[in-house]
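W.,

You were right to be curious about this one. When I first looked at the sequence I had no strong expectations either way, so I just let the prediction run and decided to look at it fresh. Below is the sequence, 333 residues in total, followed by the output.
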Amino acid sequence: MRRRSLMIAVPAGLVTLAGCGEDKADSSKATDGASPSAPDASAAPSPKIVDGPLPAITAGTKFDEKPTVAKGSGDPSKDLAVKTVIAGGGRTVAEGDYVQANYLGQIWDTAKVFDNSYDRKTPLVIQLAQGSIIDGWRYALTGKKTGSRVQFSVPPTWGYGEQGQSQAGIKGTDTLVFVVDLQATFNAKSSAKGTEVAQDNVDLPKVGTNTDGKAPSVEVPKTDPPGKLVANYILEGDGATVGAEDSVLVQYKGVQWDNGKEFDSTYSRKALTSFSLQQVVKGWSQGLTGKKVGSRVLIVIPPDLGYGDNPPEGSGIAKGATLVFTVDILAKM
């Protein structure tokens, strides 16, 4: 079963606006399958969290191993039942964080698996925020630590509600059972953690290598900008390679070459940004394709691969501007 596109809001940053008169990609296309993405409305009161009952995990009992979960026995709890099956020792997950996790979801009464990420060999990356994911995930995972396996049951109230999720065969009366292996968590203080790469070209901007979650410095040389795209590692990570059709979770900062003035930054907004590489200006999509997760990348975008003579209104970007970005690739989505 293919993963449906997740309900993550269009980011506020300028880079997602197509340049040179192109249209933005339609992010609504890949909507088949099932996932923990939020239903249309999510206004339930906070649940009571209890210890059980929860069905047994009968196979795949190690962290990040695909689990087999027994059919639910008897009636499920009307509350949110949550159990930490494996206690990790990593960072604590907070509401509003993005989490990277493998998961399996099935229906209590039938043990029918309606979705799992293990078979896709691609973990889910999603924000634990109202409107992004079902409430059961938000409440069950907040406060847990990375490296943990968490099992929980979600009644309809904190799942897909009375409407269910017909694409996945979930009825409005179904209680759902999830097993989630929390791999990582990201927030506005996250940084790339790769290995430093020498910045030898004095004709290119020099980017700071701090990994404390603060915006890195960008020093633009007093030379003419390059006429072609530049996409160089500042910190080289060891994660998965980003493909041209992938979506990514990033921190970034953008300045103009001519004056070094910042015009956009996730650091200033104190909020990470996620987007498809099919939704961004060509300089971003070409510059990040082939780069590895966990990296910081310097991207210098000439006008023809950026906004040309049509910069976004109110952006402060001059016509024909060469743009300089430092981008931390935190995760592939």
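Here's what jumped out at me. The radius of gyration is 22 Å. And, maybe more interesting for your project: Residues 1-14, 16-33 have pLDDT under 50 and may be disordered.

Coffee later to discuss?

I.
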